[in-house]
């Protein structure tokens, strides 16, 4: 951490160059003796990224940013606040504090918060930034999180851990056992330190795989922002032996889309099937990640188009946690059908279909965009269909 970055002159330079091509800046000599061009570019890139992801940080003076890779791995403010809303009690230890976005949200809810980060630079950056943000109820420790827990007799209401999904060579990993730290063999010890554990994992982790590696899972929260799944949250309770509750949330505009169920709801569900009717429904990304393909049809009294086509239909328009469309026409999949419509541009989606979007565009000579939406899918009578739709907002 270079304190010279925090001077008024340097901060002004950073703010004035948030829209500048940073590659050009890298080729120039730094205008400041104590700061390299690389350091300036790191601050500019990360602050520009923080504008929408971390507006509180962006709008606070003299925030020090890590490089863009570290920033890309942090939670957004919206997902951090959601995590904090799930807490109860008064104390929490964040074993993988990093840049501190989640820790900041926790500190606004909990009386006592501990930020553990073994990377010295990130630990110092987080400490400085919390002073700028006016947060004073956080203790900072620059060491390994699990080692810190073993070094004392302190007990907490919550443990939060976000295992790093990169190995020693900085390559991405996807299984919990390959993450750092590997918590899959630590749960007995962790539950001796807190009755409640919140684990954040990446969106690619398979839910069934996660359940085989984690103990006493009470809830799984699948969090999407603008229909892009950002993270999975696993709530573990020492005394919980029941069935996990799956809670999906998609932060979309001012009204988040919610859908909750338990695993047996999906296991026991039998959807009804139909050819396309008047309206089409596409579940949001968090629901699709959850695998509630049968249960959601029953929950909203919808018909499924095919066992493997996870889109739904009805004669009556309903509220739904996903996109809704009016079906204008249903066609067989052929060049002749598209020629009759005289379409040269459309938004294209495939669901349970043999051809890719790229192949379909080439075959049908369709450009991307416009007001029409084409769903290429297989219906329950095993026929390839094109559904011509308009989105309903």
TrEMBL record:
Membrane spanning stretches? none
Gene3D superfamilies annotated for this entry? Methyltransferase PG1098, N-terminal domain (1.10.10.1110), Vaccinia Virus protein VP39 (3.40.50.150)
Q: Which residues form the PG-1098 ferredoxin-like domain?
A: 279-321
Q: Where is the THUMP-like domain?
A: 322-389
Please report the name of this protein according to its UniProt entry: THUMP-like domain-containing protein
Species of origin: Maribacter sedimenticola
């Amino acid at each position: 951490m270079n304190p010279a970055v925090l001077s008024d002159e340097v901060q002004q330079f950073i703010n004035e160059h948030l829209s500048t091509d940073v590659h050009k800046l890298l080729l120039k000599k730094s205008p400041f003796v104590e700061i390299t061009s690389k350091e300036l570019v790191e601050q500019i890139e990360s602050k520009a990224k923080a504008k929408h992801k971390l507006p509180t940080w962006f709008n606070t003076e003299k925030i020090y940013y890590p490089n863009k890779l570290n920033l890309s791995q942090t939670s957004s403010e919206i997902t951090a606040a959601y995590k904090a809303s799930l807490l109860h009690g008064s104390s929490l230890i964040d074993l993988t504090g990093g840049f501190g976005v989640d820790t900041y949200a926790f500190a606004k809810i909990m009386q006592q918060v501990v930020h553990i980060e073994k990377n010295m630079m990130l630990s110092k950056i987080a400490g400085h930034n919390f002073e700028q943000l006016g947060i004073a109820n956080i203790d900072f420790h620059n060491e390994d999180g699990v080692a810190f827990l073993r070094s004392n007799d302190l007990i907490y209401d919550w443990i939060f851990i976000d295992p790093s999904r990169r190995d020693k060579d900085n390559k991405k990993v996807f299984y919990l056992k390959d993450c750092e730290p590997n918590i899959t063999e630590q749960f007995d010890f962790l539950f001796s330190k807190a009755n409640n554990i919140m684990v954040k994992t990446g969106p690619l982790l398979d839910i069934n795989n996660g359940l085989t590696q984690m103990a006493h899972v009470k809830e799984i929260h699948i969090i999407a922002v603008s229909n892009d799944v950002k993270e999975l949250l696993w709530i573990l309770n020492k005394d919980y032996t029941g069935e996990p509750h799956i809670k999906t949330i998609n932060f979309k505009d001012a009204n988040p889309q919610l859908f909750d169920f338990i695993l047996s709801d999906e296991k026991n569900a039998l959807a009804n099937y139909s050819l396309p009717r008047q309206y089409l429904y596409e579940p949001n990304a968090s629901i699709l990640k959850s695998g509630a393909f049968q249960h959601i049809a029953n929950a909203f009294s919808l018909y499924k188009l095919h066992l493997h086509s996870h889109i739904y239909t009805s004669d009556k328009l309903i509220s739904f946690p996903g996109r809704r469309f009016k079906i204008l026409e249903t066609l067989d999949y052929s060049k002749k059908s598209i020629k009759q419509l005289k379409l040269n541009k459309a938004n294209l989606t495939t669901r349970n279909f043999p051809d890719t979007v790229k192949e379909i565009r080439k075959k049908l000579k369709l450009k991307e965009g416009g007001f029409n939406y084409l769903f290429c899918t297989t219906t329950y009578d095993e026929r390839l269909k094109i559904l011509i739709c308009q989105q309903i907002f």
